Amino acid sequence: MCLAVPMKITKIDGFQCTCEARGIEREVSLFMLQDEALTPGDNVLVHVGYAIQKVSDEDAAETWALFDDMLAAEI
After folding, report:
1. Residue 17 to residues 56, 65, 67, 73: CA-CA distances in angstroms?
2. What digits encode the pLDDT tens for the residues 29-65?
C-alpha cells in the first residue's frame, strides 16, 4: 500500500518546492506535475518526495481528518 500526504506549497523554485503540513516542511519535486499550473498556497499529494497530484483545500482537510480518525481508533 502506498501513502501520499497532502501538503501546502509555500515556495516554488523551478521543479522544486517547499511544502508544509502540520508544522513539518519538506523539499518536494514538482517534476511529475510540470504541466500543472501550481502556485504557493496550492495543496499537493506528496509521495516519497514527489508531488503526484494537485488537490483542493477541502480534499486535503478531509484526508487529514481521516488520518486523525485512524490514529484515534482503538485497534
Report:
1. 18, 25, 24, 34
2. 999 999 999 999 999 999 999 999 999 999 999 999 9
State the Cα–Cα distance between residues 50 and 32, nearest whole angstrom: 7
Q: Which domains does the chain have, with CATH numbers?
A: 5-72 (2.30.30.140)
pTM for this model (two decimals): 0.90
Residue located via cell numbers 478531509: 62
Question: Any bridge partners for residue 7, and if so which?
Answer: 44
Task: State the amino acid at position 37 in one-letter form.
Answer: A
The answer to whether the CB of 47 falls within 8 A of the CB of 31 is no
